[in-house]
Automatic annotation (TrEMBL):
It comes from the Bacteria. It comes from Flavobacterium sandaracinum. Keywords: Signal. This is Uncharacterized protein. Residues 1-20 form the signal peptide.
Amino acid sequence: MRTIFTILALSFTVSFMAQTHEITKHNGETMKVNFIKIENNLVYYTNVESTEEKKISQFSISKLHEKSKKEAKTVSEKIALSGKADYNKVIVLNPSQTEGLRESGTISSFLGKTKGETNLSFKDGAAKRLKENAADKGFPFIVILSTKSKDLKAVMYTY
């Protein structure tokens, strides 16, 4: 009975450890991982040789290949910007969602608040201005640092 239990435990362990995936990033880099889940624009995984849980931005990953089934799932499409008019393609991220993306600099701008303008409409205008500046420079992701009227700031990210 003890040997049967040991054999069953080993077979479950081996099958669990054999579930490897390959992540293909938008910059061409590939990683062999054990995929866990996708949640809040983050992909959770462990390295094949360790059990430490890691995370990477969903936007930096192109495809997730499951080795056992020879299937590939598209995680995100690459964002191509052609100028300031494509500002609506720029994605505003939280700082925790930038793992795997490359920081490319900081942009700042000035936006005056008109009399009678609500705080919400001002923040929307500030986000639009920062997205336009990032799209003009060709960066598809930003993290907004400040939305004060005299000091709009954002950090730009790329693949």
